[in-house]
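Our working data are protein records whose layout never changes between entries. Getting from the letters to the tokens is the skill we practise here. To make this concrete, we reproduce a full record directly below:
***
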Amino acid sequence: MDLTAIKKVFEENFSNHGELGASVSVWQHGEEILNLANGWCEREQKRLWDKHTLVPVYSATKGPAAATLLMVLEENGLTPESLVVQVWENFPNQNATFAEMMSHQCGLTALDKAVSVFDYEAVIAAIEVQSPNWELGDGHGYHPRTYGFLLDECVRRLTGVRLGSIWQERVAKKFDLDLHIGLPEEEFYRVAKLYPGKMNKAELDSGFYKEFNQSDTLVRKAFGSPRGLHGVHEMNTPKAWQSALPAMGGVATATALAKFYQLAIGAIDFFCEDVIAWMQQSQSMSDDKVLITPTHFTCGFQKDPLDEVGNKIRNNYGRNKDAFGHPGAGGSHAFGDPETGISFAYTMNQMDLSVLPGAKTSRMIGFI
């Protein structure tokens, strides 16, 4: 690992790639070995960005949320191979296991009913009557928004409380993780302002955006249901920060995300061996029906997909095939590598138009 090169790339993100405010955190074997922070919390340059700056991290929330459900399953004598209906009797895919649900195989990515992302009960009711978007066993498709409700309802049925509360009380508070699935009002002042990315022609011509920009496609429907919080400006509101949405509502520092992955790979002792194994075990690897590119999922996390002979076709999660993590829309990213004991996280407020990690992080990851 070349920390000097990572620092150089971080600086170049500001000078060459339009970064506004950002942090990077690298941990190894339970200790933070690199922490960089620079820039501004808003374009008006009112607040300096530092290592304590919070920012919405979109789908980078999915990893900690998935770990929370896996922990709760283990404590209740269940495994990823248990059927979801053992916990949620009205789950629409009666033969689906938790592993299939958590690896985006259940075809519940788009809802036919128009319900608000802020109306939890209405979303759960809509899921329960939803006909799957594809048959179980026919591959996978990323669930960008419904995913959090699937996890949340299972946790609620097993514990009596919402996932964000379990995360905060059982994990975040114990390890001083500044990663919130439901941000307290007293922390609002620390949140940086997000800015949307600009679309270029290459992005418009990509398979994903061609599908996303057509109203009747599965891709568009998946990113449009439940409704609400579609614009970046909406993510800059206390309502969004307090929403405790496990798929996309997390607010975090880079240090907290990277430290979480130390727990996930076992470098910091917390999760039992079964839960750590479940986070790492591959469940589905194929062409993604929603992201329109090959993806590789465990129970809640992504790995780099492999070609026919087992070589990685992307390098979003470090040099080793067993590394796993999850990106967030626009550029936030985090992962852990159990082989090296390294974890990495990047947070920022000037978004790019990307649902997978982009140049700002991929260049750093090349030196890990």
